Amino acid sequence: MITTEQREKLRGWFAGRLPEDLFEELAELTVDREEITVIGRIPAPRLAEGASDAEREAAVQGRIQEFRERTRDARIEVAREAEHRFRRKVSWGVECGGERTLFTHVAAPVMTRLRQPERQVLDTLIAGGVARSRSDALAWCVRLVQRHTDDWLAELRESLEHVQRVRAQGPDTEPQDAATDRSTDTPTDDI
Questions:
Q1: Taking the complete model, does pTM exceed 0.70, yes or no?
Q2: Are strands 25-31 and 35-41 parallel, antiparallel or unpaired?
Q3: How far is CA 131 from CA 56, 139, 183, in A?
Q4: Is 87 left (phi over 0), alpha (psi -120 to 50) or beta?
Q5: How far is it, in rounded angstroms, from Cα 142 to Cα 75?
Q6: How does residue 171 score in pLDDT terms, banded at 50, 70 and 90?
Q7: Helices 4-17 & 53-86, crossing angle to 10 degrees?
């Protein structure tokens, strides 16, 4: 769990480090223990008035593919620096014409122990064709919970940030003056 201040520092680093002409704007930056996901907005293709939905969709997909190929080297360079500095993988995506596409992302394995009633839920999702495997069914359940509990999770994250701020003020922390200067070659604890 990272604090709002850490997230803001991370977003600021990317805003300052990304080439000026890479995105129209940095639309979203998310982070967890394994990954930083950078989503930028790119311009939608210009189409003739009255273009069909199929033409619009194909043009947007073409624009996204062109952007991905053209910017690969620049994105790799930024990702290498960020991965060294923040010790997390960097994933990329774009928003274009109302569509969002992720180019890369980390699929982190998560071990869990489930009792029979929980396994039966997953097996029912598989039997019903909702999922192909227990892993797929569990991911589906997490997405469902995520969609319906955003308010509760946001409140929980705020509470955890408050706990981290209180811990940072405890007796085991270094005074601000005693903090050592960190070079850019040393991993940072900013996030």
A1: no
A2: antiparallel
A3: 31, 9, 47
A4: left
A5: 30
A6: confident
A7: 110
